[in-house]
């Protein structure tokens, strides 16, 4: 099978990629010989997807979802056709929730909700459910997404930004000794990984937040990428489409004592009302994204075979490969984030030659099967997202491409036409 794989591939790098991926799939998923023909056809057209979300998915998950597409477990219907009130679907729903409880070590005093609207809906949902009689909430703004959350919450309460003089660009995080916390606020919100800015708060200073103040964390783009202590938080929310599933499912983990009628604003819609959702059968108030929850459950089952330490080690290895390639480029590729805050999930970088060179880089990368390496439209530049299902071979392919592109297009820094500001020499005024 592997010889057939090797000699039928059209290009040398595609042959090497196909063999490597096929071997990994066989070893990790147990795909037997009858699937090799299908796998071959799939792999000939597969690319390395560095999108910030939706994410790439493990081959084992895709294979099982493929098998269940037309006839789920002998029920005679697709999982997408099945009623969310069907007893068979209740097993799917609870499999996903139980899987998260096992994977993250979620204690019984926490409830797990699967909600819609993405993590962005929780920017309003959290204050609506936690404010109670309080008039304010603390926000540590460290990038675009925490800023969006604070801006959204400001429609409902007074927002206290604990970093009182934030920079224009976020390349590090201010020390907690300089935070200005409102002790009367309803909760403290932060984003553990800023997807757009490419920085992560790995060692959050939990003791800096008053013990009686619920800690809220938007974990979207690093959720399930490393072990966490859930008990440190009052509420965690995350879109599944980064590290643990497809788009359409938002995971909310909330401490049960925070689900109180007196805390919930009267204007809160029922589908965003934690108490209403909690009282519903299976915590399913309305029709959920049934397919999204199903695939998320498959993904969580897959992760439970290895544990989160395994995925943390992979994240460290993958990101080191890419950061080493950037740092050893002699300034051709640039990452400005302070090393201890560099994200393992979203590696952002620029090219010293500027936007024109980045456009050529993206076009050539796509031809090489390296997809969605562009930076977010708000900040530009380049970004490679290295989520749980990204194979190490994908990062190796990207770093080899970067080296090749640099060698073929390199000029001395003095001849670059569009240098970033910190590399430009200021002209002396006459």
Topology:
Blueprint: H1 2-8, H2 12-29, H3 36-45, E1 48-49, H4 59-68, H5 87-104, E2 110-115, H6 118-130, E3 136-140, H7 144-153, E4 158-161, E5 188-191, E6 193-194, E7 199-200, E8 215-218, E9 235-239, E10 250-255, H8 274-279, H9 290-304, H10 308-327, E11 333-334, E12 346-351, H11 355-367, E13 370-371, E14 382-385, H12 392-409
Parallel strand pairs: 1-13, 3-4, 3-5, 5-8, 8-9
Antiparallel strand pairs: 2-10, 6-7, 9-10, 11-12, 12-14
Low-confidence stretches are 1-15, 412-430
By secondary-structure content and strand pairing, the structural class works out as alpha/beta
Q: Into which percentage range does the β-strand content fall?
A: 5-15%
Overall number of strands: 14
Q: Overall 3D geometry? A: globular
Strand order of the largest sheet: 2-10-9-8-5-3-4
This entry's quaternary arrangement is: single chain
Main sheet makeup = 7 strands, mixed
Cα(first) to Cα(last) distance is 72 Å
Q: Give the rounded overall mean pLDDT.
A: 88
Helix content: 25-40%
Radius of gyration: 23 Å
Give the helices and strands as they follow along the chain: HHHEHHEHEHEEEEEEEHHHEEHEEH
The tally of helices reads 12
